[in-house]
Amino acid sequence: MTMRNAFLATLVLAALPAAARAGEIVIPLPAGATAETIKAPYDCGAFGPVEARYFNAPPVALASLAFKGEFLVMSNVIAASGARYAGGKYIWWTKGNGADLYDVTLGEGAAPVASCAAGS
């Protein structure tokens, strides 16, 4: 494993709860790419808190979300504005200091299941 790959694996594993660290996730990066991790807590009102971590190593952009006992790893996908991540049955769409969590099983026109503000 190269130093770059080990670094990214460490970043991803740091986001995992202790019980989930039994495995390892390694994502090879192109030569010269550097990785950055940003931890961002969100206040989502009645939905509860969402802990987000963003892993940026262009061209790779991932997010992990932890909420209500769930843990997701999401990939950045095309968005008209802001940053949009998809994983499992969820879409996490951020813009400025806000974010919306959508459950795609509720239909394309469904309202977000949580509207959140950064910095809780």
From TrEMBL:
Keywords: Lipoprotein, Membrane, Palmitate, Signal. SUPFAM superfamilies: YdhA-like. InterPro entries: MliC, MliC_sf. Pfam families: MliC. Residues 1-22 form the signal peptide. It comes from the Bacteria. Residues 42-103 form the C-type lysozyme inhibitor domain. This is Membrane-bound inhibitor of C-type lysozyme. The lineage of its organism: Bacteria, Pseudomonadati, Pseudomonadota, Alphaproteobacteria, Hyphomicrobiales.
